[in-house]
Batch of 4 targets.
Target 1
Amino acid sequence: MLSERALPAAVVDLDALERNVDRLVEALGEGPTTLRIASKSVRHPGLLRRILDRCGSRGRGLLCYSAEEAALLAREGFDDLLIAYPIAGAPAARIVASLVAGGHRVWATVDCSEQVQLIAEAAAEAGTIVELCLDIDLSWRPLGGVVHLGVRRSPIRSGASAIHLAEAVAEQPAVRLTAVLAYEAAVAGVQDRNPGSRLLDPIRGLIKRRSRPLAVARRREILESLWGIGIVPEVVNGGGTGSVSSTASDPLVTEVAAGSGFLCPHLFDGYRGLELEPAVFFALPVVRRSDPDHVTCFGGGYVASGAAGRDRLPRVHCPRGLTPVELEGFGEVQTPLRWRGQGAAPGLGEPVVCRHAKAGELAERFSTYLLARGDRIEAEEPTYRGLGGSFG
Ligand SMILES: Cc1ncc(COP(=O)(O)O)c(C=O)c1O
């Protein structure tokens, strides 16, 4: 399938992608809860479109990560864009305001009054009203907050702090609070089995078990506080790939965000009860052989973000029997691999297929993805990078 293609190349298995969409929709259960697609974990308009289409009535909108990105997606024909990360500069606030003034439904996420003020000014300047989404922190902070277990996101972690910010929103005529975002990262983004640090699995398990009821209780506390001052958010967003069914079972949640699970990079192996298939790969060409039991590929240094560790490195998917060389790893320009497989090592020009640790970041390395069905490339379509979009 790749013999006529220039390598390195990124390849998506559309059949596996579609099966992953079906599995995540099934994980939502029977209720009215919808899936919002986390665009950062895809970064490819053609795939976002296919995923939303496949979700049908169980899909609603995109969870974006920047105003500039939302503008690109609006140009590509998407709507219902919830920007899930705060905006702290006037240029970005103006982009949001102009999208809304142009007729798009876009939310800006806030967790402090300065952000509210900034967006309100841009909205007033554009003569429009921008909808805001309140970001709630769901980390577990035992011992009176001395210990912090979870990600560091918002300072809003009580009904009182939510009311305080909601009142700051109410003072501004050009903004309106209509959504709440409550992402339980300690449940949704943490593997049950991490092959790189098995000894920590029980501790991660304990934090996950404790974080689930905490998320439900904090969402309820904050929503009841907002209802008490007459604010009934239309959208209550929660979760991520690793928590679709548990988050969807909270009756206060209207939608669950998911992105990584559609493509299933290798950090999404090892979730109990979530059987997903790898759907995105990159293929590196063998360009030389320094020794009979080694092959060297062109490219490969596509290391994922997050706390630096072995789990952020790519993994060879096939042929089986190739492992990175300890002292060189996946290199900037070339990646030597030791061959311990059956028969002859792959020859010059042959592809070595690898998986990235994360779902969206590969799109920052390639301008197009090859979209495969069975053993045929069905299409080649641009990533954000291919469309000139680079948003950090
Ligand atoms: C706000 C928010 N929701 C959901 C997610 C989950 O996305 P994914 O399904 O790609 O893990 C993330 C990921 O970081 C996020 O920041």
Target 2
Amino acid sequence: MSRLARNDPRQYDDLAGEWWRPGGGFELLHWLAAARGALVPAASRPGAVLVDAGCGGGLLAPHVEHLGYRHVGVDLRRSGLEQAASRGVAVLAGDVAALPLADESADVVVAGEILEHVPDLPATVAELCRVLRPGGLLVLDTINDTRLGRLISITLGERFGAAPVGIHDPELFVDPGELTMHCAKHGVRLRVRGVRPSVPGLIRWLALPTGTAPRRLGRMVPTRSTQVLYQGIGRKQGSRGEVQV
Ligand SMILES: C[S@@+](CC[C@H](N)C(=O)[O-])C[C@H]1O[C@@H](n2cnc3c(N)ncnc32)[C@H](O)[C@@H]1O
């Protein structure tokens, strides 16, 4: 168990070696990043900006680098930002609840596995929507605030090594109805769908001697239930600079 409190972002400094370690502790984040990247359309104009809120080590970079965006990553921890920068992400130190970016400056805002870490969900959603242009796209994934979400992500996830011990605070898990309501307040109609890891990939990863895997042991697949992990996608109302999906 980390000496730090649950969800303390300084844990990511101790875990910095995991971001890109093949088959390492952040393996599932790679699968989620791939699934998230698949929801992002190609840029519809020169100079289009994709803001990656809580970018960590920049795991999204290989999944969007061919799409024509300037990939801007914001995170609290420099240890992650340095690795994101080395993958071609333009990085900014900052809090996702107070993004250091101008209003309506992003064509796409991505919030991957960050909303379950923020103490102020309404403020964070307001920020994500503030920096998004009218017609722009919000793409996110997070953990549901359900008993099953807590069982899988914490009780079992931490027990069997699928999540670093102490990285999540179950109090911050995100109810999709509440999230959808906050997005709607800021002009984004969010649609959600469940995702889960592919079972063979999960078994391969958990059975592996540490750090000996080739990249991508598995992938995320859609599932009817949003009870544990879910993705969200929504366009901000308005037509200026609209992104085609
Ligand atoms: C689970 S990781 C997700 C990283 C990345 N989005 C991905 O999916 O690979 C959560 C990241 O959010 C960052 N973080 C946590 N709270 C934050 C906040 N309030 N503002 C900005 N970044 C934050 C952490 O430093 C960490 O890099």
Target 3
Amino acid sequence: MKTRTSATAIFVGIAAIAAGCASMSDQEASQKALELMKTSFSERGQAKLDRLDQDETQKLCSKPPALELSKEVATRIEKANLDSIRYPADGMLLGDWKSGERIAQSGIGKQFSDDPKLPSGANCYACHQLSKAEISYGTIGPSLYNYGKLRGTSEPIQRYTYGKVYNSQAFTACSNMPRFGHNAILTEQQMKDVTALLLDPNSPVNQ
Ligand code: HEC
């Protein structure tokens, strides 16, 4: 029978490894912790074990000194992520804000229990206030209420907003915001739609 390991058990395990191996280098300890995690999780549906593999940005942001990220490393992370942004070939950055609102509200997608053939949501409200009407929202990110009203809808603002949704790390190294385009969570059209949600004067964000 397969058992599921709780997060607590994993952390207790990691702590035990760390405590028992005071002489281990940071790198060795991280490697051991990763091996332990890999044996503790099992693949289910679309949630594969490669989700534990970190790219360069995640590695840099996971190092303890990242708490005091040097300006040089932060700049390196932002540049690499900025270079990865792919703007739409048709040059249009604004989609349908009504669809954007549904995407911002939906937390469905990428979980093992979700159908990978269906489009994912972005769960923007989990971290941001966006409209007045929705009173249930998280505060990990800044309020985006009146975002378009405050910043306008100039070409540079449209590009920044689309780019921020595509890859948040391009503008803020080690941001806690998901990289929706970079990690193929949202499609190009969906990113246009949430960009319109933030910028369209008729969207609930700007009322
Ligand atoms: C897991 C939390 C989380 C989610 C989900 C999230 N964000 Fe963010 N967002 C943040 C954090 C934290 C910041 C501030 C740090 C930074 O700028 O990266 C931020 C910053 C931003 C900014 C920059 C604000 C500024 O003042 O320039 C925009 C725009 C934004 N988010 C839009 C979105 C949209 C649109 C979505 C949904 C598609 C979304 N966010 C989903 C956490 C999140």
Target 4
Amino acid sequence: MKSIFYPVKLFEIKRQKPPRTLVLGGTGKTGRRVVQSLWDGEHSVRIGSRQADPAFDWQDSAGWDKCLDGVTQVYVNFAPDLAMPMARPAITAFTEMAHRKGVRKLVLLSGRGEEEALACEQIVRFSGMDWTIVRSAWFNQNFSEGAFTGMVQDGQIALPVGGTCEPFVDVHDVADVVTAALSEEGHEGKVYETTGPRLLSFEQIVEELSGALGRTISFADIPHEAFLEGIQGMGMPPEMVWLLEYLFATVMDGRNEQIGYGVQEALGRPPRDFRDYARLTALTGVWDAAQAFNLVSV
Ligand SMILES: NC(=O)c1ccc[n+]([C@@H]2O[C@H](COP(=O)([O-])OP(=O)(O)OC[C@H]3O[C@@H](n4cnc5c(N)ncnc54)[C@H](OP(=O)(O)O)[C@@H]3O)[C@@H](O)[C@H]2O)c1
């Protein structure tokens, strides 16, 4: 996924209705869908992104004050990941500033099985503002809008997972839970474990993808050393190499091999299945290599 296209340059959507919501990561997988849903509900939204005006950068707190002007609630979607050492001081400084500026509610996107993310959750819980935590499984859309897209296009997913299963979740469900928490009463003080409806092995993932695409996508469980060598060879920034290695070596060790019920609890309906995601996404052409850089939004 190269970029996000909006019909008009709408980095700030001004509507009369309070509250004004700042959606951090508002151009990303969950954030842009949250923006769209809030916008559809005629909420006043400001998109937090390094490309926005005013720009929001987690690594440059000088711009935060302006982004928080007039804001009463924030979707806190940290990039690249709450597991990174930079996250804790950034979340601390951001929540303190948000509180000072009059923000009343935070909805935090967190990751399952990450000690460092739990520490960030604690910062939000004790921030003095209302809070909701959306603690999410790995996203289906990593296969179409993220790190694994190229592998599906190439027909082989090669990752060091050692037989571990993950209850992959659709980002539409995560975004729906976040939107509910931002636009309805009753989600304050809740921790929603958002997962898909079933645990999936990577063998099952490629089976679903192959079925949806009508061609074989294979899976190879590779050693960590080979994976590390591969991502280093791709010229990735060192912090991203560290993050991917951490996610596969530490988080993908079986600790998250259980279903969560956050989607049902928050929305009163079950989560979407990976099969539906695979079929709808295949129709967009994103997994056709020739379409590699097209926008997908299903
Ligand atoms: N991917 C998963 O499976 C998964 C699962 C559970 C939880 N999460 C959590 O979801 C969050 C987002 O991860 P993602 O992989 O899904 O990415 P994403 O939301 O698709 O993309 C990252 C977003 O953050 C923005 N961003 C990137 N660097 C930034 C910076 N330095 N300052 C401010 N904004 C920045 C990007 O916008 P600009 O480039 O426009 O600035 C983009 O909107 C992370 O905290 C991750 O831990 C992810």
